[in-house]
Amino acid sequence: MGLLPNSTQRGPAGSGFILQEIAGSLDFISVHVYPKTGHFEQDLINLKSFQIGKPLVIEETFPMNCKPLELRQFLTLSKADACGWMSFYWGQTPAELKRSKKPADALTREWLNVFRPMTGEH
Q1: pTM (predicted TM-score)
Q2: Residue spans of beta strands (DSSP E) within 1-122
Q3: For residue 91, what is the DSSP state?
Q4: Residue 81 and which of 34, 50, 71, 109 are 20 to 30 A apart at CA?
């Protein structure tokens, strides 16, 4: 189950359930995190709110609200709480994305070049 950042263990903010009440049925918790430049401290506090005694995975993240190197910094800071991370991959390699003139492809290429070396860090 992928939880949005406003879905805390208290439930009413958006998830429709209270994580602590269903924790016994879960193997791990997965959250969507899109940290914002200048707000990493609050984003890390939000991430901690999902700690309910189960492994916590950031299973959806992308540099939408920060730069790719900043997201790497945030993920490194999240190691105290998150067991791992997953991001987006739409099937194009950085070399293929480099041929594109679309800004979204340039951002995705830059992110892949930052994120791929992080494999195995956790």
Answers
A1: 0.82
A2: 2-3, 29-32, 56-60, 84-85
A3: S
A4: 109
